[in-house]
Design a protein that fits this description.
Blueprint (H helix, E strand, L loop, with lengths): L2 H14 L3 E2 L24 H4 L9 E9 L1 E2 L2 E2 L13 E10 L4 H15 L7 E6 L11 H8 L7 E4 L1 H4 E3 L4 E12 L3 H6 L13 E14 L5 E14 H8 L12 H11 L7 H22 L8 H20 L11 H8 L5 H4 L1 H35 L4 E2 L1 H11 L3 H9 L4 E2 L1 H19 L1 E3 L3 E2 L7 E2 L6 E14 L2 E8 L1 E2 L13 E4 L4 E4 L1 E5 L2 E6 L9 E6 L1 H24 L6 E6 L4 E6 L6 H16 L5 E7 H6 L13 E7 L2 E4 L14 E10 L2 E8 H20 L7 H37 L1 E3 L2 E7 L8 H11 L3 E9 L2 E8 L1 H6 L4 H9 L5 E5 L2 E5 L6 H16 L1
Parallel strand pairs: 1-2, 6-7, 12-13, 16-19, 33-34
Antiparallel strand pairs: 2-5, 3-4, 5-11, 6-9, 8-9, 9-10, 10-11, 14-17, 15-17, 17-18, 17-24, 18-23, 20-21, 20-24, 22-23, 25-26, 26-31, 27-28, 28-29, 30-31, 32-33, 34-35, 35-37, 36-37
Helix pairs in contact: 3-4, 8-9, 9-10, 9-13, 10-13, 14-16, 17-18, 21-22, 24-25
The structure holds adenosine-5'-triphosphate (ATP) and magnesium ion.
Amino acid sequence: MNASDVRQSFWTFFESKQHQIVPSAPMVIKNDPTLMFTNAGMNQFKAIFLGNSKPTALRVANSQKCLRVSGKHNDLEEVGRDTYHHTMFEMLGNWSFGDYFKKEAIDWAWEYLTEVLKIDKDRLYASVFEGDKDMELPKDMEAFNLWNKYLPEERIINGNRKDNFWEMGDAGPCGPCSEIHIDLRPNEERSRKPGGDLVNADHPEVIEIWNLVFIQYNRKANGDLESLPAKHVDTGMGFERLCRVLQHKQSNYDTDLFAPIINAIANITGINYGKSEDGDIAMRVIADHIRTIAFSITDGQLPSNNKAGYVIRRILRRAVRYGYTFLGQRQPFMHKLLPALINTMGDAYPELINQQELIGKVIMEEEVSFLRTLATGISMLEKIMVQTKKGNYKVVDGKVAFELYDTYGFPLDLTELILKENNLVVNRKEFEAEMEAQKNRARNATAIETEDWITLVHDDVEEFIGYDYLESDVTITKYRKITAKNKTLYQLVFNITPFYAESGGQVGDTGYIDNGTEKVEIIDTKKENNLIVHITKKLPTNIKGEFKAFVNRDKRQSTANNHTATHLLHQALRQVLGSHVEQKGSLVHPDHLRFDFAHFQKMSREEIEEVEQYVNKRIRANYSIEEMRDIPVAKAHDMGALMLFGEKYGDLVRAIKFGDSIELCGGTHVKHTGEIGFFKILSEASISSGIRRIEAVTGQKAEALIQGQHRLLIALSEMFKSSGNLEKNIAALIKDNSQLSKELDTMKQNYINIEKRNLMDSAVEINGTSVITAKVNSILADKLKDLAFQLKNEMGNFVAVLGAVNNRKPQLSVITSDELAGSGKINAVELIRHCAKEIQGGGGGQPFFATAGGKNADGLDAAIEKAKAFVTEKLS
Ligand code: ATP
Ligand code: MG
């Protein structure tokens, strides 16, 4: 069975059990402060499990792109070393939202594996939760008995809290789980030693394939468990592992999902898979990571230097580094694997094909820049090795290794590898201490303490009315306290709210609530698991009463101006630059807007102006908003709406149309484009390979910008006596200036000649060497070197110490004849270091010529005196 057939058979099976098949949610999560990447199939249903959203179907199934490289699930270090953990993998899952429970979940899992896929029953094991004293929970006998219909007792394994009790987080829905494991060892080996002891023991051939989670409790912030009224099922099966089982392979990397990529790596590097342990690990790492990187780019997450983008950048660098260290790749190579990846995954994920050019360019540019960093790091390391050896040490400072890791992306093992070749080691303890300290810093910076929700009104689903109203009567349905960085804030949820929660790039509303006696400010509005959360610094005293809620109108209007302008800008870019322009990110703020989009070159002045004209023309056309709420994704698509990443299953979407611009959007907009007033681009620049960023302003901000610029122009014009054209005046000024500089330079050259003569005349002779020590006119301060070398041309055996003050900064030059330098009697560097102390400076150079700069101009005479004494002593 090839991989596509496996995926399809899962869907077909669960369809036959009345499940609705839904698409994978994006792997990159944009609107959840607690999670950067989807790490399990259930993430997209979190709000349903929490009771904040109602499901559109009670049974669903899908294949979900998951990434486990950060936070609670981090498999990164396993990847490549073993053959069944990936960074990105697909999780096949089926869900029941308060519908069926353990019996159906277990029966169907068994039916699918053994009857549909015909997996050998004798190879399967199930684990059940053994109970936990601390949690006061008994063994999950219900699950045990259900499994016991299919499996003998000895193949039902007890699992502890760590393996068999699933929790969404420190608080929230949780429950026991049952995992299905498979023993893939050869028959003969299996009969010699049964697999029971090998389950959950990291054996490469006895692996977990499916986890069935039975969500039946809610954990409160104080740790107590309460039973859930509606019980849910959440299952997840590793697709790559299942393919390996069905294709009878030794490793996930031998399946049709990875083998073509491994082959491509072998072709590029000329190294065969299976030749050496290190080489094989590197090839698996690379085959794994190219998928992760390509998929995250299609999901809109490019490598960058913070947050999710940084995680992706680190993964890319990890692959490049493995290629560099173990496969000898000194040139970019990852981007060449794209065709092989598209061959294996392009059918199921056409976005890979659509965005192939962008993905390739981004990866290539990242590779080039990281290879450069690697080279810098290696040369740094070489210097460190020389120093360490010089001091006759064998151990390199752990701090140095940490700096290499932190700033140059050099992982410890690479540093160690290079050191080992030179018989050196790193002080690991120091390295780990630095690492720990950094982790603590990061942890403290982000630590948030969240208390339980306190519910005032039960079973109320919050309604958002902010598209139509900026004020309303509200009651608080629940609230909680959060503490972050020693600051206490409160989150309030209302029955109904006019406040827009930050999302889709648009900032959250601010405003206040008022009950007649007390006014409480809302400092921000955010979305969390589908709840609109209003953030305040204090709780209203009488929290149970009625309030009037007011959104800050001015801020909302300026934000709306910028949001609608963003749509017009998007359309303009597609008109002026071409339809390859795709939105990659945006920020809609009351003061300005920012729009990131895929485009491969800098926009010309003309293109920028054309875009501005296009937008302003549509502002003047004063189009009215046409808003379509709650239409199915498919319908919006047919209308030609521009889609963003991240439309989720079952989503009813909102389409916003102004003239010919039509986009899916949940944000707030103007009623008529004329309200925007005026649109002006502030800047256009590259933010990463293939991605450009435009920053722009509208309305009053744009007006203020133009007025400011105009004021500046007037002020500049007034600086010129002659009236007339400013541009011509400035050009003339620049020309005059360069003419004057040239003349001044000629004069200085003449002056050098005069000064040189004076200096030569001032020379005193000590034991056959002419000695010149002098402070020269500050006009020549920038010509000290010239002067010194001209002296050298004319003098015989000599030494000169010259000082000058340039812009209040003292400078010294020492020059000697080659003969004197050769004799070793006077070393210019030694001399300059000796006397530069007087000017609070340091210096350097060569034995016959050295210079120094300092801070203390008053010490210049003393420095020259000191030099004179030094020279006299050395020559006498
Ligand atoms: P393991 O113990 O093997 O790491 P897990 O307990 O972390 O698995 P779950 O969180 O229960 O796994 O995920 C459900 C299923 O997803 C697992 O049964 C497994 O088949 C698959 N899976 C989990 N992590 C990975 C991974 N990193 N790469 C590939 N498949 C995975
Ligand atoms: Mg795991």
